[in-house]
Amino acid sequence: MTELSLPQPSVRLDIWLWAARFFKTRSLAKQAVDTGKVAVAGQRPKSSRAVRVGEQLTIERGEEHFEIAVAALSDQRGPATMAQQLYVETEASKARRAETRALRIAARDGYQAPEHKPDKRARKLIRALGDLDAI
Fold it and tell me: 128, CA 20 to 30 Å: which among 26, 47, 96, 107?
């Protein structure tokens, strides 16, 4: 007697990225996959590729880089707490993201946003400072 192999459950990559809340819409997830911002096991996939539990993903979203392992599958977007249970992020990835976040915070240290919009006199001064060559 031969053993029947049951198909392993899978979900489309773009749908899983949307359900895991890496992207706000499925079309943004598809665009990220198509432009090479997502890699599966080091390979550049198609957005229709099937994702399975245990696969390693590298996701580039803006200035953030995630290295994760797929822990569960879902094709429905739920609350953030459930979405975080769909993957496990590596410790190296967490440390690297914390370091880049600290660098971004340090870079903007000392900048204070204005409390209100500039009035007519302040706008006139800003325009004058912006056009120093005209003087």
Answer: 107
CB burial string 14-45: b at 16+ within 10 A, e below: bbbbbbbbbbeebeebbebbeeebbbbeeeeb
Buried b / exposed e over 107-123, threshold 16 CB at 10 Å, is eeeeeeeeeeeeeeeee
Instruction: Read off φ and ψ for residue 75, nearest 5 degrees.
Output: -115, 10
Confirm if 51 and 10 have CB atoms less than 8 A apart: yes
Mean pLDDT across 9-38: 94
Of 99, 61, 95, the C-alpha closest to 20 is 61
